């Protein structure tokens, strides 16, 4: 839902002199649900007004005829305004509005754009001087949806171009043949027809036109308009690459990198990447950087990798910007700097690089290198999540789950479902737990099993606990045994402990004290206090082993030191009876008191008796009566089964 209070506040902050801006923003908000495409168009209008007004005032130039991207790439202009989220908005809007008319426009994208746009507008209005007018006159009524197709988009008469290219192509003009192939490839001025594209590319390729060779290679690699033939694609790329085509050099390097259509050879891949790098191909810079980072085909060199990523990143390559940000978080080839990482992640994120959006969100969440802000983290996660980034969907689900409100739980369910449906293992588990908390046990078990069969230890443990039964479900011990067994293979201490209980009590299996002791010991050595107590009890009672008070004392003491009242009482008993340790009533009293303060009735009784007899404490009938009475009252209040 649109934050109406915030929207009203932002609208009210826009002066009457900027009425067109207010109307455009209101239009964006009005259509977010009913007509997301129109909402995005209105957002585009709002963004244009702000950017062009700022440009006119800051640069003292008219930017009416310039595209937004041109204005926002002006270094001097950027230095003056610090473009905030303008790039992000521009890319989001153009991406969504360039979709075909039959594509479903995501309402959430329109809402996210509006959210950022309100923030931008709020910032913009604070820069305005009283009675200041828009530098560029706009009549909002003239900016109708039908006119939007012309906004910031260069106009080309592709139909006329296609006619002239056809005349020249049929006469054997190589450039025209290639250009006609391009038009058919992209459906510009002619209906899209990949077979015709391949036909015209082939004619130009026969004359060794490097662009045509490269374009035809792509069609063969993808199997578009021709039968897929990756080996043929490699041959075409090599012809174009030898003719100096940088894109072909990059693609050929990628084929050798992946072993597609050719035998995998990292050294050859590096050689072709280097040739493309010399011509400024940013994708080649990025991939060659990867080879240096991994030491594949070249000697491993983090500094060289960082330098290549930096070259491409400065030119604007989003993947390189992301990779450079990653290096700054790891300190590979550069000094660790979360500030620099955040800057490069942001540069890639505003170009819709989903991994960068996700990593930037994590930095906002942790406050590393950038001001901590869960709100900003959610915004970037939402962008990545809407683009299908499963880790972003999962993280978003967890954040909403932790907010613990009705609306947040609905959002948590939505995002965890999306991540889980994409086979995100942990999302399956957390979704199952969310359903379990709400009482939807059948649905919970379904999702927990999806995680469990993919070896998620906590899901396996949770299934085991579920099958132990409760007041609403009968136990199914054999199924519990099965899932606990699966979890213990991942060193899940709680599963080891539960498995030990089943063996000790003979539930779902025969009584087996040896197996119980083995399970308890495994969990106890991992610090599981209940397992330490149970293991001590086996030695204390001599169950399945020779009675050994010394070994019993060792394990029960560890559980007692962690505050477990049963273990504290048992340790008191051992001190009082001299079992596994020299009899010491003073230590016994200390242990009884710790357990008694936690409501352990037997410990309260024994502490009372020590006060009555003066053992380990100064004889005190008042204290004795207090503890004995407390023990009796608590025993009477406890349910009897």
From TrEMBL:
It comes from the Bacteria. It holds the Pfam family TPR_16. PANTHER family: ERAD-ASSOCIATED E3 UBIQUITIN-PROTEIN LIGASE COMPONENT HRD3, SEL-1-LIKE PROTEIN. This is Sel1 repeat family protein. It comes from Solibacillus faecavium. The lineage of its organism: Bacteria, Bacillati, Bacillota, Bacilli, Bacillales.
């Amino acid at each position: 839902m649109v934050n109406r209070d915030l929207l009203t506040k932002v609208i009210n902050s826009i002066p009457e002199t900027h009425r067109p801006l207010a109307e455009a923003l209101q239009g964006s908000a009005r259509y977010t649900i009913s007509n997301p495409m129109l909402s995005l168009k209105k957002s585009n209008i709002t963004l244009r007004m702000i950017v062009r007004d700022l440009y006119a005032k800051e640069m003292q130039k008219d930017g009416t005829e310039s595209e937004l991207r041109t204005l926002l790439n002006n270094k001097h202009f950027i230095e003056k305004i610090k473009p905030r989220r303008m790039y992000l908005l521009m890319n989001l809007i153009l991406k969504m509005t360039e979709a075909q008319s039959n594509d479903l426009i995501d309402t959430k994208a329109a809402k996210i754009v509006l959210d950022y746009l309100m923030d931008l507008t709020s910032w913009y209005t604070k820069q305005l001087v009283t009675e200041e007018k828009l530098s560029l006159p706009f009549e909002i009524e003239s900016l109708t949806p039908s006119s939007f197709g012309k906004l910031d988009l260069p106009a080309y008469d592709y139909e006329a171009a296609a006619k002239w290219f056809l005349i020249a192509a049929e006469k054997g003009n190589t450039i025209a043949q290639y250009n006609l192939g391009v038009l058919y490839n992209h459906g510009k001025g002619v209906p899209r027809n990949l077979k015709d594209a391949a036909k015209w590319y082939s004619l130009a390729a026969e004359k060794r036109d490097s662009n045509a060779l490269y374009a035809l290679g792509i069609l063969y690699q993808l199997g578009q308009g021709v039968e897929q033939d990756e080996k043929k694609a490699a041959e075409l790329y090599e012809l174009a690459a030898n003719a100096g085509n940088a894109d072909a050099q990059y693609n050929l390097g990628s084929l050798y990198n992946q072993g597609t259509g050719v035998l995998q050879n990292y050294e050859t891949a590096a050689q072709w990447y280097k040739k493309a790098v010399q011509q400024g191909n940013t994708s080649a810079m990025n991939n060659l950087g990867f080879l240096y980072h991994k030491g594949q085909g070249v000697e491993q060199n983090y500094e060289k990798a960082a330098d290549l990523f930096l070259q491409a990143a400065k030119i604007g390559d989003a993947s390189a910007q992301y990779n450079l940000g990653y290096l700054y978080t790891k300190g590979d080839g550069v000094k660790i700097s979360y500030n620099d990482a955040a800057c490069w992640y942001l540069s890639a994120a505003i170009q819709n690089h989903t991994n960068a959006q996700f990593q930037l969100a994590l930095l906002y969440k942790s406050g590393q290198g950038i001001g901590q802000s869960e709100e900003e983290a959610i915004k970037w996660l939402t962008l990545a999540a809407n683009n299908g980034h499963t880790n972003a969907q999962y993280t978003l689900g967890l954040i909403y789950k932790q907010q613990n409100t009705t609306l947040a739980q609905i959002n948590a369910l939505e995002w965890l479902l999306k991540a889980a449906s994409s086979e995100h293992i942990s999302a399956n588990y957390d979704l199952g737990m969310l359903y379990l908390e709400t009482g939807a046990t059948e649905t919970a078990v379904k999702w927990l099993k999806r995680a469990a069969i993919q070896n998620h230890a906590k899901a396996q443990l949770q299934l085991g606990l579920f099958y132990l039964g409760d007041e609403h479900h009968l136990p199914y011990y054999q199924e519990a045994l099965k899932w606990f067994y699966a979890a213990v293979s991942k060193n899940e201490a709680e599963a080891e402990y539960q498995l030990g209980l089943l063996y000790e009590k003979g539930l779902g299996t025969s009584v087996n004290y040896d197996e119980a002791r083995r399970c308890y010991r495994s969990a106890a050595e991992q610090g599981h206090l209940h397992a330490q107590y149970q293991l001590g009890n086996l030695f204390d009672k001599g169950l399945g082993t020779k009675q050994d008070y010394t070994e019993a004392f060792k394990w029960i003491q560890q559980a007692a030191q962690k505050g477990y009242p049963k273990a504290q009482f048992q340790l008191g008993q051992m001190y009082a009876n001299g079992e596994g340790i020299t009899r010491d009533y003073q230590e016994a009293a200390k242990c009884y008191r710790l357990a008694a303060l936690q409501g352990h009735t037997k410990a309260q009784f024994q502490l009372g008796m020590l006060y009555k007899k003066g053992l380990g404490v100064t004889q005190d009938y008042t204290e004795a009566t207090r503890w004995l009475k407390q023990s009796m009252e608590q025993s009477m209040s406890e349910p009897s089964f």
